[in-house]
Amino acid sequence: MTKVVNYGEVQYGFAKRYFEEFLSERKGRIEKLLKPEKTPVLLMDIQGVKKKYLEVKYHFPEFNVYYAVKANDDESVIRALVEVGAGFEVASSQELEKVLRLGGKIEKVISSNPVKPPEFIEFAYQKGVRTFAVDSITEVKKIKDIAPRSKVYVRIAVPNEGSDWPLSRKFGVSVEEAVEILEYANDLGLVPYGITFHVGSQCNNLRNWFIAVKLSAQLWEKARAKGLKLQMLNMGGGIPVRYNYEALSVEDIAYYVKGLMRKYFPVQPYELQIEPGRGIVGDQGIMVTKVIGKAKRGSENWLYIDTGVFNGLAEALGGIRYPFFLEREGELKEWTIGGVSCDSMDVVAKNVYLPEPEVGDYLYILSAGAYTTVYASNFNGFPKPEVVPF
């Protein structure tokens, strides 16, 4: 007889195991932080951040690893990554200033945003940044005028299917357009340095890397035929973390990518780069919130917490589904989780299974280390989550 799977039990069971594993791996360091008087709070495991960076470096030994600062720009995170020798990918003067102030080395800074404010290009150039991404003739001209003789690398468009946070529409060009951009850069006295792509944030589809590396190899050869000697391949980000499902590991992706490189780049580029952001910090953070209310709306059970999509959980609007855990026993019920603001868009999650909570209970949101506090505002007068490193 076929056993019927109880979706609620599977979902909550996964979250409970994840929570217990998170605590077990950090035993002796986190327990006293789990019930703060004031919430919301984002607990960030700084030792875990260092460990995850070193894991990426171990599995991608031939790559220069640049942490994408936009994922989590807390000073404790940046300082920790400086200590283990990480490079940094920045997109603004503020990010660059912070990295340098906290000890980052300018020679380990790149900027992969293909469309940059002129003021940032000028600031970065004055500080010593000499490598910039482009994906248009306009951007090449801008860099030539503001940052002459810089190295430029062109971003190509690649598939983002299977990525929870696609990035394929806003940036990137075809292989043919990329050749034209690199030729134009060369004509203007810039250095056509390489190629970059992004398979999409939180990517669990190895096929995206397959197509991206294959297209990069095609562009590499077309550029060589035009007399352009490219030197660098940047594979962007995309390393996923565990939300309410298991994800590809760093080892899985590295093994696959290295095989692709052997096939499509028998002569390895002079420099290989990768830019993990979420993959380094995402599963090193846990958001501690409190239940502030609950209600029955028709057939739906609503649970309200003291943070929301405007105060740190913006990615919920784009489809990211966090694991939620509540330290109670009892029958599981299906909940819609509403945020703290009075805006009707402030819905953190639907179809979440939890035991019956009470006002004042702590609700733990796992895998909250990336794209939470950096997105947060004080909308409606409610505070951003405080970051507590441990």
Automatic annotation (TrEMBL):
Catalytically driven reaction(s): L-ornithine + H(+) = putrescine + CO2
GO biological process: putrescine biosynthetic process from arginine, via ornithine
Names of the cofactor(s): pyridoxal 5'-phosphate
Protein keywords: Lyase, Pyridoxal phosphate
InterPro entries for the chain: Ala_racemase/Decarboxylase_C (IPR009006), De-COase2_N (IPR022644), De-COase2_pyr-phos_BS (IPR022653), Orn/DAP/Arg_de-COase (IPR000183), Orn_de-COase (IPR002433), PLP-binding_barrel (IPR029066)
Residues at the catalytic site: 342
Known EC number: 4.1.1.17
An annotated GO cellular component: cytoplasm
Matches recorded under Gene3D superfamilies: Alanine racemase (3.20.20.10), Lyase, Ornithine Decarboxylase, Chain A, domain 1 (2.40.37.10)
SUPFAM superfamilies, per the entry: Alanine racemase C-terminal domain-like, PLP-binding barrel
N6-(pyridoxal phosphate)lysine found at: 70
Coiled-coil region(s): none
Domain Orn/DAP/Arg decarboxylase 2 N-terminal: 49-281
Family: Belongs to the Orn/Lys/Arg decarboxylase class-II family.
Protein name from the UniProt record: ornithine decarboxylase
UniProt organism field: Aquifex aeolicus (strain VF5)
